[in-house]
Amino acid sequence: MTISKASTLFGLVFWFLISIVVYMFLSIDPRFNMSWEAPRFHFYVVSGASIIAAVCSIVIGWLGARLRNANVLLLSLGFMSLFGFFSIHGLSTPGFILEDEMYHLPGIATQLGLTLCSIWFFFSTLPSDNLVVRSVSKHSRLFIVCWITLLLFFCTLSLIYPDIAEWVPVDSSPIKFGMALITSALLLWTGKTYFQQYRFARFPLQIAVSYSVIWLTITQVIVVTSVMWTMTWWFYHVF
């Protein structure tokens, strides 16, 4: 391994450990893991940032389709899913579009976004002759339009009928931790694959995905172990 490759690996491990240490520090000491209930900030900032990121993902996905780049296309579908559902997370902040007692939908939207993102990321690591990869590449533009339509439909439906979230039991303990385990495994596999590719091809996209996977994996851990409005809960929003 060359010095530059070693430095890259060190950077990935360093930021992963720093993030975990900060999270554990906040979790262990209740004086630092205080509650900061700021629904207005959460509604406008999180929703706005997520919607902007979702639009960027759509643009990148469309460019990937034009360039016939399956990796970029599949990664963009993952980010569309993540930020599409995270837009629901922000817009469903209790006390704005939804009533104050509607706390179920934001958590479900976050978990679904992370899981769908990890699945698309995993598909992006598969060879080009894989059935899913081949199908998406062959009908790339149609697939993007259909996926965007599906995300918009679910977003609109969930905000109009938020009680529909009661039928998606992803926040019950066995299912919640099971989905978190699957999501983390897919993300870590993706990070490992892209880092190995980066060691030989040296494409910036590959190392960018590796870093993204670190933030998303830590986010997944915090999502299933934190309490709403605490500092640890806000911490995963940073990622």
User: What proportion of the residues form beta strands (DSSP E)?
Assistant: under 5%
* Overall pLDDT metric: 90
Strand pairing plus helix content: what structural class? mainly alpha
Oligomeric state of this protein: single chain
Give the total of beta strands: 0
Radius of gyration: 18 Å
Descriptive overview:
The chain has 239 residues and is mainly alpha-helical. Helices cover 77% and strands 0% of the residues. It has helices at residues 3-28, 39-66, 70-91, 104-124, 131-138, 140-160, 173-201, 204-225, 231-238. α3 packs antiparallel against α4 (104-124). The radius of gyration is 18 Å and the shape is globular. The mean pLDDT is 90.
Task: Briefly summarize what is shown.
This protein is an all-alpha fold and 239 residues long.
Produce the secondary structure layout:
Elements: H1 3-28, H2 39-66, H3 70-91, H4 104-124, H5 131-138, H6 140-160, H7 173-201, H8 204-225, H9 231-238
What distinguishing features does this structure have?
about 240 residues; mainly alpha
